[in-house]
Amino acid sequence: EMRADAVKAIVIATILMLIYIWIRYKDVRFAAGSVMPLIHDVLVVLGCYAVFRWSVGSTFIACMLTIVGYSINATIVIFDRIRENLALKTGKQTAEELREVANKSLTQTLSRSINTSITTFIMVVMLYILGVASIRDFSLPLMAGLVCGAYSSICIATELWYVMKVHLGKNKATK
To answer: What is the pTM of this model?
Structure first.
């Protein structure tokens, strides 16, 4: 029952984020580019639960939702920078111009993303070392999720947006 509740909570949160980001950015490619890496993050942490045979309890739901929230925040920072840099360009962009915008935006936010991930990871490690058993049950999978979330925000989300922007939709880039 708890697993079913966790799945429901994650699915509902993901769908609501997808809709909100779609409305906020006025482009479904931003929404899909931010939500698909979340699915990746959840599946990786779920795989860690299965491989390491961590117990599934109330901390499982909290851990999964924390990872989703952390990862979407890091992705949105990058996508906001992409949106700001796109606003500086006028007219229809070519695939090469979009690649430059994506790379520039990622470079501008990279140190922030890495520093945030490292400091959060250090804090969670300290919770694991100094915490009681229930905190350890939460912090160990959270460490896996933080690493995975940082990776997906930096290495997957922007690339997904770029591929979708170039190849999908009515406003796709010229080649």
So the answer is: 0.87
